[in-house]
Amino acid sequence: MSRGPASTVDPEVKRRRVRLLVTLVLVGTVAAIVYHYAMAFYLNRAYPQSTFLFLPNDRFNDWDNVWLFARAFLHGVPGGFAYFPFAILTALASTVVPMRVGWALLILLFLAAVTVLLRGWVVDREEHLLTKMQYGFVLVALSYPVLFALDRTNLELLLFVFLGGFFYFLYVRQSDWLAALFLAAAIAFKLYPATLLVLLLAERRFKTCAYAIGFALGLTVVGTAAMAGLGHYSLAELWHMNTMGKTYYQVTMVMGGGGLQHGHSLWGLVELTRYLRGNSVTHSRTLLYEGAAALIFLLLAIHVVFRETERWKRVLLVMVPALLLPFVSADYTLIQLYFPLVFFLNARRVSRWDSVYVVLFALPLVPVDYYYFSLYNDGISLSVILYPLAMLALVLLAVFDAQPVKAEADETIAAGPSHEERAAVAVEQTLPAVRR
After folding, report:
1. Mean pLDDT in residue range 196-206
2. In a domain? residue 5
């Protein structure tokens, strides 16, 4: 088994970053477990104060409900759906096995992907196997977004696998078309990974970008055709079911505030006081927010494409808006923060704000719902403020913490126009040694 080119990140710098991260996640999550245990068993508090996860009797239902919908869909029972056609096709395919078998396979696939990610690019600098296992355990078994995603067993787990494949084939295997295929699968599954197209534009990977767009359109067409054929529905009927599902989601989760708790959207932060007062959200306010969110993303995209030279910041600045700017972002999507986190941990430049970056990355990885503003519905806790603020702070710090001009110029020259030079710089800047 050969090893690939080594990253230039200083081993001690990386160890310091990883150890601080692991310490914060360990202390933060254990403290939350103790707190909620005391609330439930000593103070006799009920849900939502008794747990930082979702309603206990609703466990795994994000998977169960999708599987049941898919089986009914195949038997001619129409129903509203908000997912994209390719995601529904995945659900339809899962019905060839029993519901619990599909559930187990999804979890195992996700755990395999996150284990490879941590082993190859997070704990690789640690010398002792026991230390690697301890760190890996903390960053998986004690990570709030991982626990929440597993508790819900949301299809976001599969999206994590797609995005992991995209980064792996883009920067490690250097395969444009495979990287594009994995990104296309993610885009066709849920639209928000399309923000990663900006990363491809910033690195002048125009061919990969074109492949990804073409593949995503193709997968959407295939998913739509398969849904129509397998379920014996017309395109008009599929459109009606999709519209019905999205309308229900908009009314319940956005207008009604159902997506506020266990969410980290900037929309929830902006509209928090309105929700707490019980006021209805107007259509004009949603239009205003859409315009503001689009402007924010456009400005960040321009910065990434024309100004930003550090790759980990590029990944951060295209991933965080995808999680922060939608009307609803459930906390299971926070698992996608592992990708910019990995790039940061392997970044060769040591900023004077290094420890601050680690703290801001760690905050969304621990439960922080210690105080509830309201217990109505699923409750509205402190987390709906702290998570988006942490991500906002990450974005602002990344934008204004510019590297020195000389280093910026050197890196710009190194990333010349040829594919071979880009490939060498890609591996050098991002990932440490990889076992092949």
Report:
1. 97
2. no
